[in-house]
Amino acid sequence: MSKPATRDGNASTRIADSIRASILAGDYPPDTRIRQEDVAERFGASRLPVREALRVLESDGLVRLVANTGAWVNRLTLAECEEIYQTRERLEPLLLRYAMPHLDDDRLDRLDELARAMEETTEVEEFLRLDREFHLSSYEPGNTHILGDLVHRLWNSTQYYRRAYTMLLDDNRRRIMHDEHHLLTTALREGDADGAERVVESHIRRTRLQLARHPEVFDVPTSREAHSE
């Protein structure tokens, strides 16, 4: 029988979930400093669950812990982002192949719904939420030991830059992106693993090449402070 969650364990999970959501939503831009004392005060918690929460966020690829200064939201250089995207180009098609035999009709129907919803929305944050669910949901059934967790970490680390990419899209590139989502759902329904892999690889590469044309995206102000709400 598993042990019941401790009070500190519950608090650290709650804190990690809240800060994770704020980082992914862009509330804490790259290089924002997150002070343990501010977080503890905000959540009415002791330092121990705060430290545990920040370690979880570090393992998620969202923050880096620096001795004597606390946590900082991860910031990427253009070269680091390109490396991550090239890694994703190779890993995500493989993860999708693992997942494909386990994609049932309900999940495929949901992917179709998400593809249509992305096409209809004009809100960047709504699109990002739908896009994240679309891709990660297509990978979720893959029963992997390390690949799924690694892909989630890579997604987390590039979320800020994915937002910037979305805001750079013109009508033509947006149309291509939506077409790729529909092509992917068609390939998944037809059980065409090779075709699905090609679509995902091209989809990720397109983002990488677009970001490379806009190095200014990576020139974010440094040393921000995250304040409690």
UniProtKB/TrEMBL annotation:
Name of the protein described by the UniProt record: GntR family transcriptional regulator
Domain of life, per lineage: Bacteria
PROSITE patterns xref list: HTH_GNTR (PS50949)
Annotated source species: Marisediminicola antarctica
Record-level Gene Ontology MF annotations: DNA binding; DNA-binding transcription factor activity
SUPFAM superfamilies registered for this protein in UniProt: GntR ligand-binding domain-like, Winged helix' DNA-binding domain
Domain HTH gntR-type, residue spans: 9-76
Keywords assigned by UniProt, alphabetized: DNA-binding, Transcription, Transcription regulation
